[in-house]
Amino acid sequence: MGTVKLPSAKFTETELTRPVAANAFRVLAIGMVGWFHIWQQTWQSAGGFTYLARSGAAWVDGMIMLSAFCLFLPYANARVQGKPFSNIAPLEFYKKRAIRILPSYYVNILAAMGMTICWKGWQTLHWKDVVTHLTMTQTLFPESYLYTNLNGATWTLTILVGFYILFPLLAKAMTHAPVWTGTAMFAAQAVWRWHVMPMYGTNDYSMRFNQLPAFSSTLALGMWGALLFAALGHSKWMQNWFCRTICTVLGFGALWCVSRLLLRLNQAPEYQLWQLEYRTPLVFCMAMVLVLFSLGLPLPCAGVWSFLSMISYNFYLWHQMLVVWLKYVFHLPAWQGELPPNQMGDVAWSAKSNLFYWAASLAAAILLTWLVEKPFVKNYKKHSKKHNNNGKTPAKVV
Fold it and tell me: Which of 71, 163, 292, 312 has the most crowded CB, counting CB atoms within 10 A?
């Protein structure tokens, strides 16, 4: 009898530059945030796993960590291989980020403004709310962060924009001095936590809880995670099925640790206070999930993860706002009276609305990705290719 020859366990170039696990992690993180927001409107029980829905907002930290991981991964791979990595010009980097996020973002904000005017009237549209959302500075003012009439979920993008502005400098520093740079970022988060903690229970605390310095350790863990993944992914002793299987098993262990921390968050008497205190260990476990599954066995259904990851940005932008519109403006699924059916214990309505809101959010994400995001990216690549034909090198939109 002939022996069965296993395929090579060596990491491919694609696995090292864009691991499938990164797409799967993005789907997981944004999906959990979506579950939280949809659960808020349906109260659909998931039995013993309902705590995961109630604590789903904490996965925003995972989204931010993932962004740092993916953006820094090319630098990490170059550093581990001893290759020079040519720093892109900051303006070119900012242009690529803008092409990726701004078209869909502005369509969403304009839609939010239009619906607010139709639903509540001009007088409810505070000028600070409009200006700061258009300039992505909404977390700096109570009118646009705590009391916004537009899309409250977009505050996360202001954190990422702040990170993008600093990224060319942070990437250079982390490439040359990862220990010192990461330590400084952890220290910044610790100082911010020390500064904010005494304000708990006030609007000042709510305003500062989700500012960029509060996520500096989250960003550092993402960049360190990229360095760890690159170092292990290029090492000779990881190029076998045994080590990759061990990483997958450990990845499930890290995922279990995340679930235990989220259970404690769900049981905490003060949600935001617990999150501020335990943000770093929670994100550390999330980073281990990302790194270990990226190093582990190849994930099945790579095309599915890629597709869901591609539409995830528009899903995040639209799902919460869309669900609120459907429920309170259009009363869908149909309901009457002063109180929504979920608040009156209508289990059948909760189940029906849960499926309806997920389907509507996914449909909107697909539609906006193909009608807005992809055409802008395609046009950018077309102009980049044209410049390349003139002797210039285009930059890949990532």
Answer: 292
